[in-house]
Structure formats: structure tokens, C-alpha cells
Design goal:
Length: 221
């Protein structure tokens, strides 16, 4: 099978799937370059190394990183505050590299070695318990020094293969969020907001009960 230009360009990208380039994932950006719709200088985690590779593959002139691209935090990683996490699972779908582990109602945790520090999970947390902190894991730190090449072949293959699947999961999550926002607006428009507020209060009370039980268990240990 002939390898397409988009596939070769995709293989040269860091596979962070971080959206800094303005596209949903690395593959979408690679396809846009191959179709002549995007410039080669939009991947901030890749920096100059990736720009050079893309210029060579696409047969274009070298350019500095585009001024409108948000910088990437090379020395940071996400951390979840264990005292605040309520185990709601809302941070799982936005993570494009599957770096968060957890189950409903249990404390979630970030696998530092897999986390790129993209920050896409932060806005999803309803209790603001995710923050970016300085990276401690040596392997993760090394990857950040040279992101386009530091992933192992197996790791890159997994991310390139799973990228579409994970983005699809994220798109479904966003669609559910949009539906619930529309429902909220309808309820406000039709005067059913009191019911909704009552349900929210019940949920908040349930969350408080879970926290209190967890604190009690921790005291008994
Ligand atoms: S790693 Fe680069 S190409 Fe991939 S999504 Fe992030 S900015 Fe875009
Ligand atoms: S855990 Fe958060 S910061 Fe880390 S890769 Fe996933 S979305 Fe990005
Ligand atoms: S979104 Fe926040 S509270 Fe919910 S599981 Fe993730 S870290 Fe915990």
C-alpha cells in the first residue's frame, strides 16, 4: 500500500493530540497540510524539529512557529488533588492520550509518564481539582526535551492508531454536554429551572455525603 503524504506528515508529528495547532488532532493537522490548507509551522510542542521535518516532507520553505499558536508547557504535567476529587469521571473523555485512570466514585489519578501537560482535562473538572505542576518523572521530563522523537515506536503507533478512537469519544462527550446545555436552556425558558436546581442540590448533598464517608474512612485507618 502506498503511504500517503498525510500519513508521512502525521508520523512526523509528536502525537500529543493537544489541539495547539488549531486542529482536532495530529492526523487532522497532517491532512490539512497535505491538502494545502495549513502551513507547516503550527505545532508548538514539536517546535523547530517538527517544522523542519514537515517542510522537507511537504516540499515547503522553513518558517518560524506561527505567532498565533499557543505555547506548549514542556515542563508541566497534570495532577489531581486527591482530597477534592469526587470520582465523577468527567476528566476521562477530554484526555486525548488516555493518561487519566479511575472509575466512577473513586479517586482518579494522572499517569505522569503518559501525560503531555496539554491541559485539555482541566476545564472538564467540576470541582477544579486538576492543575498543572512541574514534571517529576524522568522519562516524562526527557520526552518533553525532545517530544517529536522521544516516544518509543510502540507508543507512537498506539497513539496514532487510537487517536481517532479517542477523539471520537471526546466528540461524543461534547455532544452530550451540548444536549444537556440545550436542556438547561429549555428548562430556564419554560420555568422548570426550580426542579433542576432542586436536583442539583440533591446531587451536591450526595457528593458531600460521599466526601464525609471518605474522610471518616481515612480517619479510621
Ligand atoms: S502535537 Fe502538534 S500537530 Fe499534534 S495536535 Fe498538538 S499541536 Fe497539533
Ligand atoms: S491528563 Fe490532562 S494534561 Fe495530561 S494529557 Fe491528559 S488531558 Fe492533557
Ligand atoms: S473531573 Fe475532577 S472530580 Fe471528576 S474524576 Fe476527574 S479529577 Fe476527579
Amino acid at each position: 500500500m502506498t503511504e500517503t503524504l498525510a500519513t508521512r506528515l502525521d508520523a512526523a508529528l509528536p502525537q500529543h493530540q493537544c489541539q495547539r495547532c488549531g486542529y482536532d488532532d495530529c492526523r487532522s493537522y497532517a491532512e490539512a497540510i497535505a491538502a494545502g490548507k495549513a502551513d507547516i509551522n503550527r505545532c508548538s510542542p514539536g517546535g523547530e524539529l517538527v517544522i523542519e521535518s514537515l517542510a522537507e516532507l511537504a516540499g515547503r520553505a522553513l518558517r518560524p512557529l506561527a505567532a498565533d499558536v499557543e505555547p506548549f508547557p514542556m515542563d508541566q504535567v497534570a495532577r489531581i488533588d486527591p482530597a477534592t476529587c469526587i470520582g465523577c469521571t468527567k476528566c476521562l473523555p477530554p484526555c486525548p492520550v488516555d493518561a487519566i485512570v479511575g472509575a466512577p466514585k473513586y479517586l482518579h489519578e494522572v499517569m505522569e509518564v503518559a501525560c503531555t501537560g496539554c491541559g485539555l482535562c482541566i476545564p472538564a473538572c467540576p470541582v477544579d481539582c486538576i492543575s498543572l505542576v512541574a514534571v517529576e518523572d524522568e522519562a516524562a521530563a526527557a520526552r518533553r526535551m525532545n517530544p517529536p522523537t522521544a516516544r518509543t515506536g510502540l507508543e507512537r503507533a498506539r497513539l496514532m492508531h487510537r487517536g481517532g478512537e479517542l477523539r471520537e469519544r471526546y466528540r461524543r462527550h461534547e455532544a452530550r454536554r451540548a444536549t444537556s446545555q440545550r436542556r438547561r436552556k429549555r428548562e430556564l425558558d419554560t420555568g422548570d429551572a426550580d426542579d433542576l436546581d432542586a436536583r442539583r442540590a440533591e446531587i451536591a448533598a450526595a457528593v458531600e455525603r460521599v466526601r464525609a464517608r471518605r474522610a471518616e474512612r481515612a480517619r479510621q485507618r
